[in-house]
Amino acid sequence: MPPRKRTLTIPESEFQALVQEALDGLPDEYAKLITNVAVVVEEEPSPEVRADLEMEEGEDLLGLYQGLSLDKESFFQAGGQLPARISIYRGPILRLCRTRKEVVQEVRDTVVHEIGHHFGFDDDEMPY
């Protein structure tokens, strides 16, 4: 099954600005702890990501945290670890939402959710 057709259009630059607004809206104590986390906007999850997550055809992924969460980091870890990365997927979010207001809320929720993984929260422990 091909991905659902997008009905809502928000230019990539505007979508990236929404992600930045979500990051700028974080309380200072959390914002300081994600300075070494790369946050990127991608159109869709790659086939490799979909395969790694064993996603079904037609299943959407809104965001992904890749890296070692703060509760797992250690001074004694071997070097060479890639920095943490959060991907926010524009296509799935735009397919999910019907209005710009919904997009703004979903981007915020997805950014907060993925940052929660950076702090070591599982999906069922997210603070919202």
From TrEMBL:
InterPro entries: Zincin_1, Zincin_1_sf
Domain of life: Bacteria
Pfam family, one: Zincin_1
Entry protein name: Metallopeptidase family protein
Lineage, uppermost ranks: Bacteria, Pseudomonadati, Nitrospirota, Nitrospiria, Nitrospirales
